[in-house]
Structure formats: C-alpha cells, structure tokens
Write a structure and sequence with these properties.
The protein is of the alpha/beta class. The chain is 25% helix and 20% strand. It comes from Pararhizobium antarcticum.
C-alpha cells in the first residue's frame, strides 16, 4: 500500500472497486506510475453492501477479472457471498494496487495540460485520470419516505442483511429490480408477510430448454453486442432483469409469490396520512416483465432452430396469477407494516468533477470509456460498451481498452511507453 503521496502521477484512478483495480492491473503492466483513491476500502460494496443470502445471478464462469478468471470446481454454479468475497479478495491481493483507502476526491479540474485532483489525503496533479466510481455511489430514497409514520423502520437495500434485523411485523419492499425481488424472496422464505411494490423491471428465465439462459445468450452473441449498435444507446439506463442464483438458480416469479401470500402493488406515487399510494399499473408491470421473459426465450428458440440444436422443447410462460383489482392505497398500520425496504437504486456522485464530460442528464459522454476531454476516462458503468461492462464479465476488457488508449495519450504528450501486451 502507498504510504505517502507524490506531487505528480502519470495517471490517477478514482475508485477502488473492480473497475479501478482492473485499471491499476493494466497500468502496472505498462509501468505507468499511478495512484488509486478509494473513499472507503477496496471492494467496499462487495464487502459492506450485500445481504447475507446474496449470491451471483450469473454463472461463475462469467467471473473474468483481468488474469483472474474463475477457476473453481463449479463454473455453472453461483457463488454465495463468502465465495464472492474470497474471489474478490484474491484479486485485490494479486493486483496490489497503490491505493489510498479512506480517501475522498473532492475536486478534479484541468490546469494547463495537467489535471489537478484534490483529495482528503492531499492535492496531486496527473497527466490522465480514470473515473471508476460507478453509478452506485449514493443509495437513493424517495422523499416520500419522510412522510411515513414514525416508528416504521426504513432501510435501503445497501443496509439490508437478513430478516432478523427487522422488527416483527409485515415488510413492504419498494422496487422490483434485481435486489428488491431477491430481498422480497429472502423475507418471503423466512415466513415474513411481504408487500411488494412493483415497477417496470424486466425478468428472465433461469433455465430454458435444458440450459442456463445465460449460456444460451452467450452462444447467441448477446454479450458481444455493443452500445454502438442500432437501438442499444438507451440500454445504459435499463433496469437489470430479475432472477436468482439462490439454491442452484431459479426464476423469480412475482405471480407465484402472490399465490403464496405476497401482496403486490403498482408503482408507488407517494405517502399520505399513514397510507402508501400506488398507480393502478400492477397488471401492466407484470405483463411487461413476462413479455421480456418470453421474448428472451423466443430468441433462444430461433437460435436453436437456426442451428439445428437438439434441445428439449420449450413453450411461452403462461401467467399463474392475475390481479383481481388494482389497489391504489395501503393503510400501513392496518396491515401491520413495521418496516420499509427501499429497493430504489442509487445515484452517482460526479459532484467533484469540474470537467465538461456530461450530457444533459448528468451521464458521462464517452465512447468505450474515452470521454471528450483528452486524458479523461470512465470505467465500470453499466453498458459502458457491452452488457457485461459493469460486471465481472467484461470490466477487465474495458479497462484494457481504456489503459491502452491512455498509454497512447501519454505517448503523444510525454515520453514513450512500452507496448501493452495483448490480452
């Protein structure tokens, strides 16, 4: 670990998660002096923002960090929390990045041909900067939470660990994305009464026609499609499909949960007088999720037919349950609700970046991690380049490309660098 700051670095990496560490790996291979600033600890989110029953939703074989591919005995399984932490910890030790932990970056600005980075450990200049802080910096909780009755426990998914941490009583989970659905299942399996507030999150089958859907999609080439393809630009804002790797992997079907006693609602619109209010769009939300589910399976059907693959027969999903009526308000006290879990996502924190690299929505404008400001790069964003850009699958490939480009930038502006090895 780095003990003291130099005045100048050829590169500064902001963020010590999987993206920042991947960048450091390739920077070290080129001998580019650099420092990594991490406001918490390396791999903080994996260590401190995952619940006890957390597991991967993609097969272990998709864990492809740089020079650190999964080499365990169950490539088609799904690592549980302890196994993921061990995998990440081995990567952290292998990279041995020059990282300053507990160090926040408070400003980034351009001064002449250099960049000035002010951090809680001091100020440095750099020839280049890689922003690897992801879109998940700050847990987002709607302001409606301020109007919930006193005495109701409120936590974000980042702070949820297990059902036992919540007071006795019913729980309402707001948000049906990947984390929300898995936590709702965790509570449901523990015998808690769960109320689930849905949104427009899509869903995906776990297994179809004899194989994991992820394996089929890899064969089809879905993980190689780039954001540059027609109609793909909007993908960067898409919600992840919900499914799970728990207990060997299975679908998450909210309709099945409803048959088992889970209460479902449309999108939340607010809180008033002890009641949570909803849009009458539950059926639309469920139908939309199933439409994506069946669409993915139809894509696999076409692939099997075109390639003449011998596989078990498949069929479209048929809804197991339909809402009889749309509930638009819920009396929290009457339903015995004592806890609310906000599965409402995160917001990025780019407040320290004083550079013109953002679009009108505050999202970095970039092409495969390269921004419009020469020498400034971003890494680790969902759909930075492909479906796997924000995950173990492809973050290393993105980091390799970014560092390759960064090296060429340094070569043009300062002393030459040795060529990066292919890989």
């Amino acid at each position: 670990m780095t003990k003291s700051l130099d005045a100048h670095y050829r590169a500064v990496v902001v963020g010590g998660g999987q993206a920042g560490l991947s960048a450091s790996h390739y920077l070290q291979k080129l001998g580019i002096d650099h420092v990594v600033f991490e406001k918490n600890t390396v791999a903080h989110k994996w260590k401190n923002e995952r619940w006890d029953a957390f597991c991967l939703v993609t097969p272990n074989w998709q864990c492809q960090l740089p020079d650190h591919a999964y080499d365990g005995t169950d490539p088609n399984g799904f690592m549980v929390k302890e196994e993921i932490l061990a995998y990440v910890d081995r990567f952290v030790k292998k990279v041995n990045a020059p990282v300053f932990e507990g160090t926040s970056v408070t400003s980034l600005e351009k001064v002449g041909n250099l960049f000035r980075i002010q951090s809680s450990a001091g100020s440095v200049t750099a020839d280049s900067v890689i922003l690897a802080t992801s879109l998940y910096s700050q847990p987002f909780v709607p302001r409606a939470g301020e109007r919930l009755p006193e005495g109701i426990t409120q936590i974000h998914t980042a702070d949820y660990r297990n059902p036992a941490q919540l007071p006795e009583g019913a729980v309402i989970v707001v948000g049906s994305g990947q984390s929300g659905c898995q936590i709702a299942e965790d509570l449901h399996l523990a015998g808690r009464k769960v109320h689930m507030v849905t949104g427009n999150a899509p869903r995906c089958a776990r297994f179809y026609r004899g194989r994991d859907v992820v394996d089929w999609l890899a064969d089809v080439g879905q993980y190689d499609i780039t954001i540059g393809h027609d109609g793909m630009a909007k993908k960067k804002h898409d919600t992840n499909h919900y499914l799970t790797g728990r207990d060997g992997g299975r679908d998450i079907d909210l309709r099945k949960f409803a048959l088992e006693g889970m209460a479902l609602y449309g999108r939340m619109t607010g809180v008033s007088n002890g009641k949570m209010l909803f849009q009458p769009d539950l059926k639309s939300n469920l139908d939309g999720a199933d439409r994506v589910y069946n669409g993915i399976n139809a894509l696999i059907d076409r692939h099997i037919a075109e390639k003449g693959i011998d596989a078990p027969e498949g069929s479209p999903y048929v809804p197991l349950w339909e809402p009889e009526a749309e509930t638009t308000e819920l009396d929290l006290a009457a339903e015995g609700i004592t806890s609310v879990i906000w599965a409402t996502g995160f917001t990025p924190d780019w407040s320290y970046v004083g550079l013109p690299i953002f679009d009108g929505t505050g999202y970095p404008v970039q092409h495969r991690g390269v921004t419009g400001v020469e020498g400034v790069y971003v890494l680790g964003l969902p759909w930075l380049w492909t479906w796997g850009s924000g995950r173990f699958l492809s973050v290393g490939k993105d980091a390799h490309h970014v560092v390759d480009h960064l090296a060429a930038h340094l070569d043009r502006t300062r002393r030459p660098l040795k060529q990066m090895a292919n890989g």
